[in-house]
């Protein structure tokens, strides 16, 4: 069974994001980029399936600039077998990403695609769902636990206030939530080995996908600055402030 894992190169989650002065987007100059944290969880889950003998091959795919090959190398160092870089310097919206992934699925025929629930740069939370729809496959979103059978998978999903377990027919798309697993760090020998693993280079046109944007970002702005807090001396003073100043009780 092949498992396909899309991995996106995004601003590292530790970086304090700066909005450009003209509010057209965020500043990417000299900013550390890394694999989307949810996608590390995807790679970990796929590699665990391989280690358990349930998956035969793990393919990491990234759509982005040349540097996205580093993101694929990270996935290869974690244990993925090969990579596909769909190279473009343009911003690619979730629908176009989903169309490219669909074309790759048509060729590679994986039984399972594991995507992150969202990319932390655009917070779209759309790609996995759109891909499942384009393929006509089942989807299990926000996965917390996966039990993979021969022709079905049980996916425990994180929902408001609890968990829901669904059974999906394979092939399927699963999107992962934070608590599915704890991704491993790649060891030095595995980082060295990953250098020899193959990465195929393609373009969106190779898959016949038009990546022209359908959305226009009008404005990006920073959240309002947090106001400084005040220290109170007594519970009575706190209650008074909550009641008469904040108006929350
Ligand atoms: P989004 O719908 O943009 O929030 O992204 C959800 C998931 O789709 C990500 O966690 C990735 O697994 C996948 N994905 C989105 N964009 C890309 C991309 N450019 N390259 C590879 N995978 C992507």
N- and C-termini, Cα separation? 57 Å
* Share of β-strand residues: 25-35%
**Main sheet makeup:** 9 strands, mixed
CATH architecture: 3-Layer(aba) Sandwich
Radius of gyration, CA atoms, in whole angstroms: 21 Å
The kinds of small molecule bound in this structure are: adenosine monophosphate
Descriptive report:
The structure is a single chain. The chain has 249 residues and is α/β, with parallel strands linked by helices. The protein has helices spanning 37-51, 68-78, 94-108, 127-135, 188-194, 235-245, and strands at residues 2-6, 9-11, 33-35, 57-64, 82-87, 112-116, 138-148, 152-159, 162-169, 172-176, 199-202. The longest helix has 15 residues, at 37-51. It is globular. The model has no long low-confidence stretch (mean pLDDT 96). Bound molecules: adenosine monophosphate (AMP). Adenosine monophosphate binds next to helix 1, strand 4, helix 3, strand 6 and helix 4. Adenosine monophosphate is lined by residues 6-8, 36, 38-39, 42, 61-64, 92, 94, 97, 115-116, 118-119, 122, 124-128.
Any descriptors?
Rossmann fold, 27% strand, alpha/beta, 27% helix, two-stranded antiparallel ribbon
How would you briefly describe this protein structure?
The protein has 249 residues and is α/β, with parallel strands linked by helices. The chain contains six helices and eleven strands. The strands form two sheets. A nine-stranded mixed beta sheet has the order 9-8-7-10-6-1-4-5-11, sandwiched between helices. It has a two-stranded antiparallel ribbon with strand order 2-3.
């Amino acid at each position: 069974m092949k498992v396909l894992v899309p991995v996106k190169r995004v601003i590292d989650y530790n970086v304090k994001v700066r909005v450009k002065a003209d509010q057209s987007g965020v500043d990417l100059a000299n900013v550390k980029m890394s694999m989307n944290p949810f996608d590390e969880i995807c790679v970990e889950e796929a590699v665990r399936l391989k280690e358990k003998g349930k998956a035969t091959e793990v393919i990491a795919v990234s759509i982005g600039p040349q540097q996205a090959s580093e993101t694929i190398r990270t996935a290869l160092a974690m244990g993925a077998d090969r990579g596909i870089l769909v190279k473009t310097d343009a911003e690619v919206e979730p629908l176009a990403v989903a169309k490219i992934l669909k074309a790759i699925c048509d060729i590679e025929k994986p039984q399972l695609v594991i995507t992150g629930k969202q990319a932390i740069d655009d917070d779209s939370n759309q790609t996995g769902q759109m891909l499942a729809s384009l393929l006509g496959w089942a989807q299990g979103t926000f996965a917390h636990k996966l039990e993979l059978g021969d022709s079905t998978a049980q996916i425990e999903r994180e929902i408001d206030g609890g968990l829901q377990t669904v059974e999906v027919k394979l092939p399927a798309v699963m999107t992962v939530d934070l608590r599915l697993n704890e991704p491993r760090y790649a060891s030095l020998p595995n980082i060295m080995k990953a250098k020899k693993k193959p990465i195929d280079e393609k373009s969106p046109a190779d898959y016949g996908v038009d990546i022209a944007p359908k959305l226009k970002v009008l404005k990006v702005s920073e959240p309002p600055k947090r106001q400084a807090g005040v220290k109170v001396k007594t519970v009575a003073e706190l209650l008074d402030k909550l009641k008469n100043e904040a108006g929350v009780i």
